[in-house]
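Pilot study result, target chain (334 residues):
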Amino acid sequence: MKSIREALSERILIIDGAMGTMIQRHKLTEADYRGERFKDWPSDVKGNNDLLSITRPQIITAIHREYLSAGADIIETNTFSSTAIAQADYDMQSLAYELNVAAAQCAKEAVRQSGKEAWIAGAIGPLNKTLSLSPDVNNPGFRSVTFDEVVAAYYEQVRGLADGGVDILLVETIFDTLNAKAAIYAIKQFYRDHPELSPAEIMISGTITDASGRTLSGQTLEAFYTSVMHAAPLSIGLNCALGAKEMRAHIEELSQIASCYVSAYPNAGLPNAMGEYDEAPHETAHFLEEWAEKGFVNIVGGCCGTTPDHIKHIADGVRNLNPRALPVVERELI
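Predicted structure:
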């Protein structure tokens, strides 16, 4: 199998779509989430989608299979909230490592069943606590978590993903660059501690939250890019918060400043009054196809509200288009 860098030099790669959107289609109950093992768990666990990698692995594997069949080259593990910090909402901190291993195994099984060549990206989410912003408006200096605590949580997640056999570590949906820096630090530290392992490639994907073109913690896109480039990532990009229509200007800007590959996986438009996403697959695909024609992107897919149908339309739309060329300086460095 080619390395992902080799593949990216030849064509645009497709990353999958939303996991949560697909899980919702199963209309699972509290009992479904609990399974036999957690039937007596003291707190409610419905909504803890990451738990399904343990209690309903066949559902997660089947969702991965649908995305692979739709044309995905990269599938993301079901680990967006698989840190001790995020799992504290369900009193399941102790499961963090196991959740990551189980999710990676679900993805690997899906690739095996599909017979396709594909890469598995370990999804590392932004956490439900932020290092840059105080949760108390009356005490702006207060932080609910420390940098070292965030690093420790991410380190445990990285260990589980690596032990599960992922190819890529995807630090995604970044709204606070300091959290992302903690994740990058944890990744680098893990591989320093395990020199016998080949380091996984790192993908970084931020979130621009509004028309101002800034992250939630107030950084411009260029400042965000500058803050994380020391990680020497495979790619940098944007996902979530915006639909493709609203994301376009930011992707164009990123394509002009990034020395690495550029990824983009927007939501299926903006949510309606019910919080649901209405943008049809051909509409999302039309936007991403135009970005590809303009030479903005190397990796495309979907975030909230997107389905295998969206991914199929996107894959079909960009299949014969050239990937964004890396700046010459990057080629010389490689």
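One observation from the pilot: Residues 96-114 form the longest helix (19 residues). A full batch analysis is planned for the follow-on phase.
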